[in-house]
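Supplementary Methods S3. Complex input for the serine-bound model.
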Amino acid sequence: MRRKELIKRYIQFFISKGHKEIKNSSLIPENDPTVLFTTAGMHPLVPYLLGQPHALGKRLCNVQRCIRTGDIEEVGDPFHHTFFEMLGNWSLGDYFKKESINFSFEFLTKELKIPKEKISVTCFKGDKDCPKDEESAKIWESLNIKNIKFLPKEDNWWGPAGKTGPCGPDTEIFIDGIEIWNNVFMQYNKNENGNYIPLTQKNVDTGMGVERVISIINNTGDNYLTDCFKPIILLIEKKSEKNYGKNEKDTRTMRIIADHIKAASFIIADGITPGNKEQGYILRRLIRRAVKYSRELGNNFSLSELVEGVYQIYPEYEIISKNKEKIIYEIKEEEEKFLKTLEKGMNLFKKLTENKKEIECKDSFLLYQSYGFPVELIEEECKKRGIIFSKEKFEEECNIHKELSRTATQGKFKSGLADNSEKTTQLHTCSHLLLEALRKVLKDNSIIQKGSNITPDRLRLDFNFDRKLTDEELKEVELLVNTQIEKNLEVTRKEMSLNDAKKEGARGNFEDRYGERVSVYTIGNFSKEICAGPHVKRLGEIKGKFKIIKEESSSAGVRRIKAIIT
Ligand code: SER
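Predicted complex, serialized as structure tokens:
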């Protein structure tokens, strides 16, 4: 079975069970500031898992592109990758354990025809926060599943994805010992103090990895031999004139390159460019690791030549087809930049290790931090020259720095949407006012939102406009927003079909694939937008003055404004 067929069958199955398909969202989360990337299909649904009504109802499903970089070092074996597609179905306060487990069982055994003897499951063992999940185990028993284990929180609990947010016990499904599906019963919200507070509604959040299932169904024993990777592997083979599967070292190298270039392509397609912080840094790291490994294959091609393979696997992703040139450009640029620093770094490396038996920790960290040397490269260069490199000591040094930056990051993302939704909600409502104020002040009705990111501390809005705004214009925009807030206008939400929303003059980025039913938020007679975020009920709930703190270019033809409430 091909990847596309599996996705089609999954969506059709859940639609037949009363679910509505939601869009495959960006890898850069809009509704969940607690994480850098979308790591599961549930991220765009955080507000709805916490109780806000979703315009498409209480049963949803989709296929979602995801990135998990937590075990980037593990990539290289047949099963790990940083980019993957997740099939998911959700109940937002609708069905719970019985239906969820039955749906999964029916899909696996009837649709995919997996013999039930191959299925084993695990359930939550229980602890002080939540009782043992006997209920799920009983449901599995009623389906004649014999292999049931109870495991603690480390294994059978999912979330929150960031520090705070929705979470709960889960039941995991294994085929021949490989985990393929996770049904999470999200009924708690973990707060800043680490307490699990029961949610007003009991939700189901499931996730199944496309690559793993495809590999199991087709019995390949290697995810990289499925159509989720094959076109990139074939290109690497052709360009390097080496064969996949011939020896362990080259095979591993090819997997790393294939995974990293695929992940990098999607991250670029979702609007990120290589940089030194947050998503940009992860992107840089992926490309640089891939470059480092490609040198081992002979380095006689540019990694940007592999983007074609990504496109061949995912032709239905418009973000890839539309941005192909941009992806190729960014990968090439970063590759060239890295090769240049690599040269400088190698000179420094030679100086630092001259007449030495061992490289000092601070020196290896300098190469890593300032010259972008992946740890594998330091290791390899030391080995070549017979110099001792202690990975443990190096990791200790990294941990000290990681701890520092983690503290900084946590400060930054402190109390994400889940916990401090008041602040986020106020800022989110302000971003509607800002967008409309921009249209009015700049007298440009074609302005739409091109991107948004909101933390409890500030809003960030990207919009199409082709020049810098003057100080006067910015002042005028601020004033217009604050005047609306002072008027204490009412914010109302109405559900309607996308067509009716358009007829009513609601604004939205129609390049986004909205569902057939959408939520339209109207603020007095000032603004009307299609939106899915959280909003205040009256503008008087916005406590303070709206203030623009930065206006800059985001990319060609797109400006970026950061604003706060003071
Ligand atoms: N959020 C859960 C997971 O990622 C189920 O999708 O495993």
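The pocket of serine is lined by residues 40-42, 88, 158, 182, 184, 205-207 (CB under 6 Å). The CA atoms of residues 74 and 154 lie 19 Å apart.
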